[in-house]
Amino acid sequence: MAYMLVSPREKLLHAIRLVTHSPSTQAYTKSIVYFPTCAMVEYFYPLLSKLSEFANHKVISLHGQLPPSARKKNFELFCNLTTTSTVLLTTDVAARGLDVPNVDLVVQLDPPQDPKNFSHRCGRAGRAGQPGRAVLFLHQGREEEYVQFLKVRGIPVEAVHRLDSTGGILQRDDDTAVDDLVARFRQFVQLDRGLHDKVFTR
Fold first, then answer.
1. What is the 8-class DSSP label of residue 120?
2. Helices 177-191 and 38-49 meet at what angle, rounded to 10?
């Protein structure tokens, strides 16, 4: 298990880079990205689906406010796709109680409110003797004590570096690619009335 210190505005950028840059020559087949709320999954699902970085990925959403039939359909789709790299955007509805085979990567955008869910989330990757990777994002300067909290609970974690656009180690503090990502999101929102209304009616 690993953690990455990032600023809040960098989280989605580095989640994208983790999913699309496997440290091995084998690309990730199945990745799970945990969001704190259902509203965030619902909002970012169409935005992330439109990104060129995910052109070769199938992006699927799963959260507690979806109708049960849609949750079942999306979960089965994520489990059954084997020929396409698949990314599941979800909440803690997928942290426990679901059998998700062959997950290569788990990314947690924020520490879970219930500490027990940390291990449940991470446990989705590398099950049944298969290799897997789990990365938790922590807000630099504000959440670093969470590492010590995990160690007290007997959960070993190690720091990993932020990634650049090629999957290598980011050598500078500020990454201008964040501004580009935000600009692309704004463009998508301006072109999609439904997304626009979600932003401005909340």
1. H
2. 90
CA pair distance 164, 125, nearest whole angstrom: 23
Across the 202 residues of the chain, what is the mean pLDDT of every consecutive 10-residue run? 91 95 85 94 94 95 94 93 92 79 90 80 70 88 86 88 90 82 91 66 50
Q: What CATH number does domain 2-174 carry, 3.10.105.10, 3.40.50.300, 3.40.50.10140, 1.20.1250.20?
A: 3.40.50.300
Q: Which is nearest to 89 in space by CA: 71, 114, 112, 67?
A: 71
CA distance 56 to 76: 20
Q: What global pTM score does this model have?
A: 0.91
